[in-house]
Amino acid sequence: MGRYLIRRLLQMIPVFFGATLLIFLMVNVMGDPVAGLCGERRCDPATAAQLKREFGLDRPVWRQYLTYLGNLFSGDFGTAFNGQRVTELMSTAFPVTLRLTLVAIVFEVVIGVTLGVLTGLRRGRWLDTSALLVTLVVISVPTFVTGLVLQLLLGLKWGIIAPAVSTAARFDELIVPGLVLAALSLAYVTRLTRTSLAENRSADYVRTAIAKGLPRHRVITRHLLRNSLIPVVTFIGTDIGTLMGGAIVTERIFNIHGVGFQLYQGILRQNTQTVVGFVTVLVLVFLLANLLVDLLYAVLDPRIRYG
């Protein structure tokens, strides 16, 4: 396990550099960030040149990237065009999005896995048919439609929740936004768990456990469920970074000032430092989540061993 962990950590290094390089190049071709600082009017050449020198935009892209990496390893993610440090924006945005993502993951695991297990064990019955129909509807409806409908009904019409989340973004305020954020993934988790469980029910090791006379609950929990959850864990692990980076629509609907909000503002204002800094952290989240998923494989399936 130790050698495998070291090997995976070494593999993450080129992936990190390659991902950050692509992000840096794509962000730098979005447009002229200096033009966005002057509003609707064009900057005069002297002002534009001064701003480019101030933010280091007058240098070649490869030198800007090397400078960014050097600052990154010292904990400096740069300065936004409004003069605010990117780390300050992160300190306020990431805790909010982490809480929102945690609520969404809880919905995925509790509702998605539970419903998937129930439908997988009762395949072809009314519960299975109803779950397939509901999840198909959830997958078909865009996130912004789900969010706006729930905000309209629960917030404005019935007054059950506040239409917008406060700046504190407490857990109780993030329940409905978390459900909206998790809706699509929850539907996929339900279907994936159902399919995996139904396939493994006819496996040899399950029939052998039943033939030995093991109790039904032990066959399901100790044998069937552990092996069936491997693809589900893979999906949820990769979905953590997706939820954090893909919360732009949900955070805009409920006025949540998290990572999605800051990314939206950064792209809108062509603030390269903010966009690159936030996406760099999301890359790290993706890498660490995938590493955790690989380590969980050995816990779920005793046959998997890492040398």
In what range is the share of β-strand residues?
under 5%
The secondary-structure class comes to: mainly alpha
Rounded to the nearest angstrom, the distance between the terminal CA atoms is: 6 Å
Give unreliable regions as ranges.
Answer: none
Instruction: Using the coordinates shown, work out and report the CATH topology of the domain at 91-272 and 288-300.
Output: MetI-like fold
Strands, count: 0
- What is the CATH architecture assignment of the domain at 91-272 and 288-300? Orthogonal Bundle
Task: Specify Rg, calculated over alpha carbons.
Answer: 24 Å
Q: For the record, what CATH class of the domain at 91-272 and 288-300 applies?
A: Mainly Alpha
SSE string, helices as H and strands as E: HHHHHHHHHHHHH
Q: Give the CA-based shape.
A: globular
Please tell me the overall pLDDT.
Answer: 82
CATH superfamily of the domain at 91-272 and 288-300: MetI-like
What can be said about the biggest beta sheet?
none
The helix count comes to 13
Helix content: over 70%
